[in-house]
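Predict the 3D structure for this chain.
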Amino acid sequence: MSELFKTIKNSDTKKLCINGSSIVINNLLHQIYNGNKKYLYQAISNNQTITELFLWYMNNKEIKYLIKLLQNNQTIKKLYLYFNKLNSENLLKLYEVLKINGTISTLSLDDNDNESMKYLYEVLKINESISELHIYSSQIDDTGMEYLSNIFELNQSITILHLRNNIIDIEGTKYLGTMLKKNKKITTLKYGKINDNCIKYLSPAFMINESINILDLSYNEMTVRGIKHLSYALKNNISIKKLNLNNNKISDIGMKYLSLMLEINKTIVMLDLSNNKIGNDGFKYLTDVMKNNEIITELNLEHNEINDIGMEYLYDMLILNNTITKIYLKYNNIDIIPKYFIDVLQINHSLSVLDLDDNFDEQIEEIFNKNKIIAKFKDVCKYCNVNDALLLINKHNENVYPQQPLVVRFADFVRLPNKASDNINANDAIYWILKNKMIKVAKELIIKCKIHKRIYERGSDMINLIENK
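Done. Predicted structure below.
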């Protein structure tokens, strides 16, 4: 056992997990008897690299060792306390230490009650180092939420607030909503285990609050009624960039209200709608709006009820949308990717991730690999259009085929088979020259183009791209 304590003392690990009689350090599991816990905490106190400490199932004797550790420790920044049955006396002592601790920035608590919120209230009136607060799986009800809301009237350091799996109802949600209307520091809010009635009283806060940029309302019981209230509030919100509604009950009708909101909202860039019983009708509401949306870059619709018909709606969207970069559609009812859908992926070069079920991975990956090369080429060419890019490698032929389309001249130059030259498009042409690394040919071409300064500069960049690829 002394070897274990020596390992902890001298380890350069940043994270240590203690779960009852088990310790995880450097991804290795060790067992320890309760009688040796005192020496364990002494070893931790001598370690200068541990910044994250996870503690499960502490007893009241062990909490005394933790209190002593925190009185002197200057390195632990994140403290996670889970399933710890502590009596009021020791809990009060722990919070007394946290009042004066100036290093812990993340505090995560669960299995608390309203009484513990009174202690926490006193801590956060004084402590200015804690910026992230998690309260999970506790017995905090409306009264406890009142204490918490009062905390934020005084505390200006907390920017991230997670409230999950408590028993907060309408009155408690009202306290939270009132606080959020005034608070200008909280940037991330996770609020869970609430229903439509709670959402009704929380939503108006988002019409006023301008500090929250990440809103996570996942794993709630929000139905069409709740999403209607939320959508109305978010229409003109100017701060929320990431909206997580995973695991609610939005359905197709709820998507109608959400889509109407997205027509007006100009800030949401990431939207998670997974696990919401959304079918083709709801997906159509969304894709119709997304045709003209220039803000959202990431959509998650995994674990819904979209089928092959939904792929037609997605096709229509991708023809017009040049902003979206990531779409997640795993675990729906999609059986095939139509051939015409593959065509649109070759046209749309903003989309870099389309996550369907695993049997489509190889097909999708091949297209995106090709698109990445094309996109990179265009970037190197300083966003010139495709024809300008092709002009570089056709310049010496301009007197040979003055009347023929540029792509055909290019195809002849690189000596693609005649049948291929009849069908290739400009993107295929760029991909071909990059894939085959025609450095020698391209270099010769660059020399001939020196008199054309703009083309020469772009061409030189292209050679560097090819050689370093």
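Residues 224 and 253 are 7 Å apart (CA to CA).
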